[in-house]
Amino acid sequence: MAKQALIEQRPWLLGSIVAATAFYFLRDNPVGEGTWGLLAKGASVGLLATYAWLRVPHDRRWIDGILLVAALALAAAGDVAIELYFELGAVLFAVAHCFAVALYLRNRRQRLSPSQRMLGLALFIGTPLISYLVSGQDQIAVYAVFLGAMAATAWTSRFPRYRVGTGAVLFVVSDWLIFARFGSYDLGVLPDLLIWPLYFAGQVMIATGIVQCLRGEQPVR
């Protein structure tokens, strides 16, 4: 069923991947730095939001689908805004994380092992702490509280941990690479190479994992 669902919605997922790939390879070229680059970047997660909108079930889980679509749509807007005005992009992502946290709290895992609880707590506390250490900026640490809450609640939700939880962690790592640019850490070319692939892969894992779980096509683990 999960494979069939992906085939049925292949144009949206394929379009998302094509847009993300185009942005990755064109972002340092004149084309990628202009309007076309912004459109490609926004379309990457924007098409994931469209995929989620078309695939979420219209039943009692509908509110979960709305929260997911809102989080993805706000993230897509943040992807564009951050290229124009960094602070506005951060605000949009923080609001997106609030929608995601609401979704994950609505779908809390009823039973957590001690290790799962500890990792959730580590994500919640460690994300803003490491964000501050690598950036040295209070504002980034404040934003990272929302980021850490998103990752922690994703990891402790009922959604497939090795899809949705891992996707949220990739999101965090991608942001850490961004924050390192503001601090004294010189990571060479790693941020340029990894920020976008880690972020986009994380969003794909989150979107497809949640949609398939809500539709009963992905087993809860």
Secondary structure elements and pairings:
Layout: H1 2-8, H2 10-26, H3 30-33, H4 35-55, H5 62-84, H6 86-106, H7 114-135, H8 138-155, H9 161-180, H10 190-214
Helix pairs in contact: 2-4, 4-5, 4-10, 5-6, 5-10, 6-8, 7-8, 7-9, 8-9, 9-10
Give a written overview of the molecule.
With 221 residues, the protein is mainly α. The chain has one domain (2-214). Helices cover 81% and strands 0% of the residues. The protein contains ten helices and no strands. It has helices at 2-8, 10-26, 30-33, 35-55, 62-84, 86-106, 114-135, 138-155, 161-180, 190-214. Helix 7 (114-135) packs parallel to helix 9 and helix 8 (138-155) runs antiparallel to helix 9.
- Poorly predicted regions are none
Helix content: over 70%
Q: Compute the separation of the termini in Å.
A: 17 Å
- Rg, rounded, reads 17 Å
Summed over residues and divided by their number, the pLDDT gives a mean of 88
Helix run count: 10
Identify the overall geometry: globular
Question: How would you sum up the major sheet?
Answer: none
Structural class: mainly alpha
